[in-house]
Amino acid sequence: MNTFKLAVVQAAPVVLDRAAALEKAAAYIVRAAREGAKLVVFPEAYVPTYPFWVWFLAPREHARLAELHARLVEQSVSLPGPELAPVQEAARAAGVFVALGVNERNAEASGTSLFNTVVLMGPDGEIVAKHRKLVPTGPERLVWAQGDGSTLSPVSTPLGRFGMLICWENYMPLARYALYAQGMDVLLAPTYDEGETALCSVRHIAKEGRVYVASASLVLHVDHVPKAQGLAGLVAGRDWIKNGDSAVAAPSGELIAGPLHREEGILYADIDPVAITGSRWNLDVAGHYARPDVFHFGLRRRMLTPMSIEEEAEQETVVRRPSQNAVQILD
């Protein structure tokens, strides 16, 4: 692991327009790569948008929620699938890693439930890994299903070991510890969160795990909200709906980039492996501070599906040569 430059993108989504969102993301990738970035991190559910309307609509407004959900599913992505090709090509052309927040269809089952997912693409444009948010928060449960432990694992890359947690998953002590205990250098943390409490959490996690934390949040102004589906009416009279506050924290707990407030842009930070390993001499929560003689923790890292299918095996008749006792055996 060598020192490299990280880029955190704070941007407004192109609401419910996957093609335009991917085009915008690709442009940011090109821009960040020109500044020397080797890893580019985007906000939570950036494609085709974070479903902000769930914080404004009551659950009883079924018809409106159903209309918006249908549009969101249509503009979401399946993994693996062809929809992310523009961003994959941008990553390949720029030679960078890209962590992108998406709404992911449950392609392994009905194809119409959604997961809040961050997908990691490599410098060859191929998908390296993904992580599905374990617990949607509050009204997010009207939109997203729960992820499982199969995606709760750091990813080994030439730049280091990347872990991924989304928004309030970062408040889950055991989720964090699961990544610490499997070895993690940089936490990629796409989020919708903002403000002083969120920034305190980013700093705490960095110091607790002796890791770098890249918190990529989105901004949303009333002008970014389309009039279609009556969305503009939900936020009428408002100015900034989301303020952003993206930031990068070092293993010391210090903010080394950001926060970026109420504007679109890119934050840059140098990731130094010595700052990670060196700082653990006096605190290593998954090492000499773990005390496995006192505490025990287990992780179920398997994918859960709503149905298993067992195909009927074709029966095959095997004719054996007659044995010496002239008995013919047929299986």
Explain what you see.
The chain has helices at residues 18-34, 62-75, 85-94, 173-181, 195-209, 231-234, 273-279, and strands at residues 4-10, 37-41, 97-105, 114-121, 127-132, 155-157, 160-164, 186-191, 212-217, 219-221, 240-249, 255-261, 265-271. With 331 residues, it is α/β, with parallel strands linked by helices.
Kindly summarize this structure in a few lines.
This protein has 331 residues and is an alpha/beta fold.
Distance between the termini: 58 Å
> How many domains comprise the coordinates?
1
* Fraction in beta strands: 15-25%
> By helix and strand content, what is the structural category?
alpha/beta
Instruction: Assign the CATH topology.
Output: Nitrilase/N-carbamoyl-D-aminoacid amidohydrolase
How do the SSEs run, as a string of H and E? EHEHHEEEEEHEHEEHEEEH
CATH architecture: 4-Layer Sandwich
- The pLDDT mean sits at 92
The profile of the biggest β sheet is:
7 strands, mixed
